[in-house]
Amino acid sequence: MTALDPRALRDAFGCFMTGVTVVTTLDAAGKPLGFTANSFSSVSLDPPLLLVSIANSSANLGNFTGGRGFAVNILSESQKDISATFGRRSSGDRFAQVYWKHGPVGSPLIAGVSAWFDCTLEQAIPAGDHTILIGRIGGFEASPHPGLGYYRGAYTTPAATAAELPAGPDVVISTVLEAAGQVLLVDDGRGGLSVPMARVGREGVQAALDALIAGVGVKAEAGSIYAVYEDAGTRTQHIAVRCPAVAARPARGAFVELSRAGVADVTDPALRHMLERLADESRIGNYGIYFGNHQQGRVQRIAEDSSK
Protein backbone atom coordinates (compact mmCIF):
# COMPACT_ATOMS: atom_id res chain seq x y z
CA MET A 1 0.00 0.00 0.00
CA THR A 2 1.37 3.42 -1.00
CA ALA A 3 2.19 5.67 1.95
CA LEU A 4 -0.04 8.72 2.30
CA ASP A 5 1.40 12.21 2.23
CA PRO A 6 0.73 13.62 5.74
CA ARG A 7 0.64 17.23 4.54
CA ALA A 8 -1.84 16.41 1.77
CA LEU A 9 -3.93 14.40 4.22
CA ARG A 10 -4.00 17.30 6.65
CA ASP A 11 -5.09 19.65 3.85
CA ALA A 12 -7.86 17.22 2.92
CA PHE A 13 -9.06 17.11 6.53
CA GLY A 14 -9.08 20.92 6.40
CA CYS A 15 -11.80 20.83 3.72
CA PHE A 16 -14.26 19.99 6.49
CA MET A 17 -15.37 23.29 8.00
CA THR A 18 -15.32 23.19 11.80
CA GLY A 19 -15.64 25.39 14.81
CA VAL A 20 -12.74 26.30 17.07
CA THR A 21 -12.50 25.27 20.72
CA VAL A 22 -10.15 25.68 23.63
CA VAL A 23 -10.03 22.55 25.79
CA THR A 24 -9.10 23.25 29.42
CA THR A 25 -8.31 21.38 32.62
CA LEU A 26 -6.40 21.79 35.90
CA ASP A 27 -3.14 20.11 36.80
CA ALA A 28 -2.50 18.42 40.15
CA ALA A 29 -1.60 21.78 41.69
CA GLY A 30 -4.77 23.48 40.43
CA LYS A 31 -3.01 25.40 37.63
CA PRO A 32 -5.21 25.98 34.54
CA LEU A 33 -4.06 24.37 31.29
CA GLY A 34 -5.50 24.48 27.79
CA PHE A 35 -5.01 23.91 24.08
CA THR A 36 -6.79 24.90 20.88
CA ALA A 37 -8.63 22.12 19.04
CA ASN A 38 -11.11 21.74 16.21
CA SER A 39 -11.38 17.96 16.63
CA PHE A 40 -14.57 18.25 18.70
CA SER A 41 -17.80 16.30 18.30
CA SER A 42 -20.94 15.40 20.16
CA VAL A 43 -21.20 11.67 20.93
CA SER A 44 -24.42 10.96 22.83
CA LEU A 45 -27.41 12.66 24.43
CA ASP A 46 -28.18 9.83 26.84
CA PRO A 47 -25.78 9.72 28.54
CA PRO A 48 -24.52 13.21 27.57
CA LEU A 49 -21.10 12.60 26.02
CA LEU A 50 -18.70 14.50 23.78
CA LEU A 51 -15.19 13.97 22.50
CA VAL A 52 -12.06 15.90 21.62
CA SER A 53 -8.59 14.66 20.72
CA ILE A 54 -5.19 15.71 22.00
CA ALA A 55 -1.84 15.07 20.35
CA ASN A 56 0.30 12.44 22.06
CA SER A 57 3.22 14.86 21.68
CA SER A 58 1.50 17.43 23.91
CA ALA A 59 3.35 18.23 27.11
CA ASN A 60 -0.02 18.28 28.87
CA LEU A 61 -1.21 14.85 27.69
CA GLY A 62 -0.86 13.33 31.14
CA ASN A 63 -2.85 16.12 32.80
CA PHE A 64 -5.78 15.55 30.44
CA THR A 65 -5.73 11.73 30.44
CA GLY A 66 -5.08 11.41 34.16
CA GLY A 67 -7.15 14.28 35.48
CA ARG A 68 -10.71 14.41 36.80
CA GLY A 69 -12.13 16.07 33.72
CA PHE A 70 -11.95 18.86 31.17
CA ALA A 71 -14.01 21.64 29.62
CA VAL A 72 -14.63 22.46 25.98
CA ASN A 73 -14.96 26.20 25.27
CA ILE A 74 -16.43 26.91 21.80
CA LEU A 75 -14.87 30.22 20.80
CA SER A 76 -16.94 33.09 19.43
CA GLU A 77 -16.09 35.05 16.28
CA SER A 78 -14.35 37.78 18.31
CA GLN A 79 -11.93 35.34 19.97
CA LYS A 80 -9.42 34.57 17.23
CA ASP A 81 -6.69 35.97 19.47
CA ILE A 82 -7.57 33.46 22.19
CA SER A 83 -7.39 30.64 19.65
CA ALA A 84 -3.94 31.81 18.60
CA THR A 85 -2.76 32.11 22.21
CA PHE A 86 -3.76 28.56 23.10
CA GLY A 87 -2.56 27.21 19.75
CA ARG A 88 1.04 28.33 20.20
CA ARG A 89 3.71 26.03 21.62
CA SER A 90 4.63 28.11 24.65
CA SER A 91 5.56 27.46 28.23
CA GLY A 92 4.09 30.81 29.30
CA ASP A 93 0.84 31.35 31.18
CA ARG A 94 -1.81 31.19 28.46
CA PHE A 95 -4.49 32.25 30.95
CA ALA A 96 -2.73 35.47 31.98
CA GLN A 97 -4.75 37.66 29.58
CA VAL A 98 -7.96 35.60 29.63
CA TYR A 99 -10.86 36.06 32.01
CA TRP A 100 -12.01 32.65 33.24
CA LYS A 101 -13.78 30.93 36.11
CA HIS A 102 -14.25 27.41 37.44
CA GLY A 103 -17.13 25.49 35.91
CA PRO A 104 -19.64 23.37 37.84
CA VAL A 105 -17.44 20.30 37.39
CA GLY A 106 -14.29 22.30 38.07
CA SER A 107 -12.49 22.96 34.80
CA PRO A 108 -11.71 26.50 33.53
CA LEU A 109 -14.46 28.23 31.55
CA ILE A 110 -13.45 31.16 29.31
CA ALA A 111 -15.66 34.26 29.26
CA GLY A 112 -17.43 35.39 26.09
CA VAL A 113 -17.48 32.02 24.34
CA SER A 114 -20.27 30.80 22.10
CA ALA A 115 -20.86 27.79 24.37
CA TRP A 116 -19.08 25.72 27.01
CA PHE A 117 -19.30 22.15 28.27
CA ASP A 118 -17.77 21.10 31.60
CA CYS A 119 -17.13 17.36 31.75
CA THR A 120 -15.78 14.56 33.86
CA LEU A 121 -13.37 12.27 32.02
CA GLU A 122 -15.29 9.19 30.90
CA GLN A 123 -12.58 7.50 28.88
CA ALA A 124 -9.21 8.18 27.21
CA ILE A 125 -8.67 6.12 24.08
CA PRO A 126 -5.26 5.97 22.32
CA ALA A 127 -5.77 6.45 18.56
CA GLY A 128 -2.64 6.73 16.42
CA ASP A 129 -0.71 9.90 17.13
CA HIS A 130 -3.60 11.33 19.17
CA THR A 131 -5.64 10.33 22.19
CA ILE A 132 -9.42 10.67 22.16
CA LEU A 133 -10.88 12.18 25.32
CA ILE A 134 -14.52 11.25 25.93
CA GLY A 135 -16.20 13.50 28.47
CA ARG A 136 -19.47 13.12 30.34
CA ILE A 137 -21.14 16.54 30.37
CA GLY A 138 -21.89 17.78 33.90
CA GLY A 139 -22.84 21.31 32.92
CA PHE A 140 -23.13 23.44 29.79
CA GLU A 141 -24.31 26.80 28.55
CA ALA A 142 -24.91 28.35 25.12
CA SER A 143 -24.81 32.07 24.39
CA PRO A 144 -26.03 34.24 21.48
CA HIS A 145 -22.43 34.82 20.33
CA PRO A 146 -21.86 33.28 16.85
CA GLY A 147 -19.12 30.66 16.78
CA LEU A 148 -15.71 31.08 15.18
CA GLY A 149 -15.17 28.87 12.13
CA TYR A 150 -12.10 27.21 10.67
CA TYR A 151 -11.69 26.12 7.04
CA ARG A 152 -8.64 25.16 4.97
CA GLY A 153 -6.23 26.52 7.56
CA ALA A 154 -7.94 29.89 8.04
CA TYR A 155 -10.50 31.37 10.40
CA THR A 156 -13.99 32.18 9.11
CA THR A 157 -16.52 34.54 10.65
CA PRO A 158 -19.81 33.85 8.80
CA ALA A 159 -22.07 36.00 10.99
CA ALA A 160 -19.79 39.06 10.92
CA THR A 161 -19.23 38.69 7.19
CA ALA A 162 -22.94 38.40 6.49
CA ALA A 163 -23.67 41.50 8.57
CA GLU A 164 -21.25 43.55 6.46
CA LEU A 165 -22.78 42.53 3.14
CA PRO A 166 -25.14 45.05 1.58
CA ALA A 167 -28.72 43.88 1.83
CA GLY A 168 -30.46 43.49 -1.50
CA PRO A 169 -33.98 44.73 -2.20
CA ASP A 170 -37.02 42.67 -1.28
CA VAL A 171 -38.70 41.05 -4.27
CA VAL A 172 -42.40 41.88 -4.75
CA ILE A 173 -44.55 39.87 -7.15
CA SER A 174 -47.63 41.52 -8.70
CA THR A 175 -50.45 39.80 -10.54
CA VAL A 176 -52.11 41.66 -13.39
CA LEU A 177 -55.29 39.58 -13.69
CA GLU A 178 -57.01 40.31 -17.02
CA ALA A 179 -60.44 39.11 -18.11
CA ALA A 180 -62.60 40.34 -21.01
CA GLY A 181 -60.99 43.78 -21.22
CA GLN A 182 -60.94 44.24 -17.48
CA VAL A 183 -58.27 44.09 -14.79
CA LEU A 184 -58.63 43.06 -11.15
CA LEU A 185 -57.88 45.79 -8.60
CA VAL A 186 -57.88 45.46 -4.81
CA ASP A 187 -57.81 47.87 -1.86
CA ASP A 188 -54.21 48.90 -1.19
CA GLY A 189 -54.93 49.83 2.45
CA ARG A 190 -54.10 53.49 1.81
CA GLY A 191 -57.40 54.69 0.46
CA GLY A 192 -56.62 53.69 -3.13
CA LEU A 193 -56.34 50.69 -5.38
CA SER A 194 -53.62 48.27 -6.44
CA VAL A 195 -53.19 44.95 -8.16
CA PRO A 196 -52.74 41.91 -5.87
CA MET A 197 -49.10 41.80 -4.77
CA ALA A 198 -46.94 40.20 -2.11
CA ARG A 199 -43.32 39.93 -1.06
CA VAL A 200 -41.58 36.77 -2.22
CA GLY A 201 -40.44 34.58 0.64
CA ARG A 202 -38.28 31.51 0.80
CA GLU A 203 -40.87 29.53 -1.12
CA GLY A 204 -39.90 31.38 -4.31
CA VAL A 205 -41.61 33.44 -7.01
CA GLN A 206 -43.82 30.70 -8.45
CA ALA A 207 -45.24 29.71 -5.09
CA ALA A 208 -45.89 33.36 -4.17
CA LEU A 209 -47.65 33.92 -7.51
CA ASP A 210 -49.82 30.81 -7.08
CA ALA A 211 -50.77 31.96 -3.57
CA LEU A 212 -51.78 35.41 -4.87
CA ILE A 213 -54.02 33.92 -7.55
CA ALA A 214 -55.59 31.51 -5.07
CA GLY A 215 -56.17 34.37 -2.62
CA VAL A 216 -58.35 36.40 -4.99
CA GLY A 217 -60.54 33.39 -5.77
CA VAL A 218 -60.63 33.55 -9.56
CA LYS A 219 -59.56 30.99 -12.11
CA ALA A 220 -56.37 32.24 -13.72
CA GLU A 221 -53.01 31.08 -15.01
CA ALA A 222 -49.59 32.63 -14.71
CA GLY A 223 -48.76 34.23 -18.04
CA SER A 224 -45.82 36.37 -19.13
CA ILE A 225 -43.68 38.87 -17.25
CA TYR A 226 -44.87 42.38 -18.05
CA ALA A 227 -42.53 44.60 -16.03
CA VAL A 228 -39.39 44.35 -13.93
CA TYR A 229 -38.43 47.48 -12.03
CA GLU A 230 -36.80 48.62 -8.80
CA ASP A 231 -38.25 51.14 -6.39
CA ALA A 232 -35.27 52.77 -4.68
CA GLY A 233 -37.49 54.53 -2.15
CA THR A 234 -38.93 51.32 -0.71
CA ARG A 235 -35.91 49.12 -1.63
CA THR A 236 -38.13 46.68 -3.47
CA GLN A 237 -37.64 44.84 -6.75
CA HIS A 238 -40.97 44.45 -8.55
CA ILE A 239 -41.94 41.70 -10.96
CA ALA A 240 -45.36 42.12 -12.58
CA VAL A 241 -46.91 39.12 -14.33
CA ARG A 242 -49.87 39.21 -16.70
CA CYS A 243 -52.30 36.46 -15.76
CA PRO A 244 -55.22 35.62 -18.08
CA ALA A 245 -58.29 35.06 -15.91
CA VAL A 246 -61.91 33.96 -16.23
CA ALA A 247 -64.36 36.79 -15.56
CA ALA A 248 -66.08 36.00 -12.27
CA ARG A 249 -66.81 37.61 -8.94
CA PRO A 250 -63.50 37.59 -7.01
CA ALA A 251 -63.12 36.84 -3.32
CA ARG A 252 -61.45 40.23 -2.90
CA GLY A 253 -61.36 43.34 -5.06
CA ALA A 254 -63.25 43.84 -8.29
CA PHE A 255 -62.68 43.81 -12.03
CA VAL A 256 -62.62 47.28 -13.59
CA GLU A 257 -62.32 48.48 -17.17
CA LEU A 258 -58.75 48.26 -18.41
CA SER A 259 -58.44 51.89 -19.47
CA ARG A 260 -56.72 55.01 -18.26
CA ALA A 261 -59.95 56.10 -16.57
CA GLY A 262 -60.48 52.65 -15.04
CA VAL A 263 -57.10 52.60 -13.32
CA ALA A 264 -57.09 56.28 -12.29
CA ASP A 265 -57.50 55.40 -8.59
CA VAL A 266 -54.38 53.24 -8.44
CA THR A 267 -52.27 54.91 -5.74
CA ASP A 268 -48.73 53.91 -6.74
CA PRO A 269 -47.65 56.10 -9.70
CA ALA A 270 -45.32 53.44 -11.14
CA LEU A 271 -48.06 50.81 -10.98
CA ARG A 272 -50.64 53.20 -12.45
CA HIS A 273 -48.35 54.08 -15.38
CA MET A 274 -47.76 50.37 -16.00
CA LEU A 275 -51.50 49.70 -16.15
CA GLU A 276 -52.04 52.72 -18.41
CA ARG A 277 -49.41 51.30 -20.76
CA LEU A 278 -51.15 47.92 -20.65
CA ALA A 279 -54.45 49.60 -21.54
CA ASP A 280 -52.86 51.32 -24.54
CA GLU A 281 -51.06 48.17 -25.70
CA SER A 282 -54.21 46.06 -25.33
CA ARG A 283 -55.99 48.25 -27.87
CA ILE A 284 -53.38 47.63 -30.56
CA GLY A 285 -52.26 44.15 -29.49
CA ASN A 286 -48.57 45.07 -29.36
CA TYR A 287 -47.10 44.28 -25.93
CA GLY A 288 -43.71 44.96 -24.39
CA ILE A 289 -41.76 44.26 -21.21
CA TYR A 290 -40.63 47.20 -19.07
CA PHE A 291 -37.15 47.20 -17.55
CA GLY A 292 -35.90 49.99 -15.30
CA ASN A 293 -36.87 51.61 -12.03
CA HIS A 294 -40.04 53.20 -10.72
CA GLN A 295 -39.26 56.45 -12.57
CA GLN A 296 -37.65 55.60 -15.90
CA GLY A 297 -36.64 52.67 -18.06
CA ARG A 298 -37.28 51.14 -21.46
CA VAL A 299 -39.93 48.93 -22.99
CA GLN A 300 -38.66 45.99 -25.00
CA ARG A 301 -41.20 44.77 -27.50
CA ILE A 302 -41.92 41.06 -27.41
CA ALA A 303 -40.69 40.61 -30.97
CA GLU A 304 -37.60 42.75 -30.39
CA ASP A 305 -34.23 40.98 -30.59
CA SER A 306 -32.63 41.50 -27.17
CA SER A 307 -29.22 40.37 -28.44
CA LYS A 308 -28.72 43.52 -30.48
Describe it.
- This protein is of the alpha+beta class and 308 residues long.
- The chain is built from six helices and 21 strands.
- The chain has helices spanning 6-13, 61-66, 80-87, 158-164, 205-216, 269-284, and strands at 18-19, 21-26, 32-37, 40-44, 49-55, 69-74, 100-102, 108-110, 115-127, 130-142, 149-151, 154-156, 170-179, 182-187, 193-194, 197-199, 225-231, 236-244, 254-257, 288-293, 297-301.
- The strands form four sheets. Strands 13, 14, 15, 16, 17, 18, 19, 20 and 21 form a nine-stranded mixed sheet that branches.
- The longest helix is centred in the last third of the chain and has 16 residues, at 269-284.
- InterPro entries: Flavin_Rdtase-like_dom, NADH-dep_flavin_reductase, Split_barrel_FMN-bd.
- It comes from Tabrizicola soli.
- This is Flavin reductase family protein.
- Residues 13-157 form the Flavin reductase like domain.
CATH topology of the largest domain: Pnp Oxidase, Chain A
Number of domains: 2
Portion of residues in helices? Answer: 10-25%
Radius of gyration: 32 Å
Name the CATH architecture of the largest domain. Roll
- CATH class of the largest domain equals Mainly Beta
- Apparent shape: elongated
Oligomeric grouping of the chains: single chain
Summed up, the helix count is: 6
**Broad structural category:** alpha+beta
Query: What percent of residues are in strands?
Result: 35-45%
Point out poorly predicted stretches. 303-308
Could you give the distance between the termini? 60 Å
What is the CATH homology-level superfamily of the largest domain?
Electron Transport, Fmn-binding Protein, Chain A
SSE order: HEEEEEHEHEEEEEEHEEEEHEEEHEE
Report the major sheet.
Answer: 9 strands, mixed
- Number-wise, the strands total 21
Rounded mean pLDDT is 87
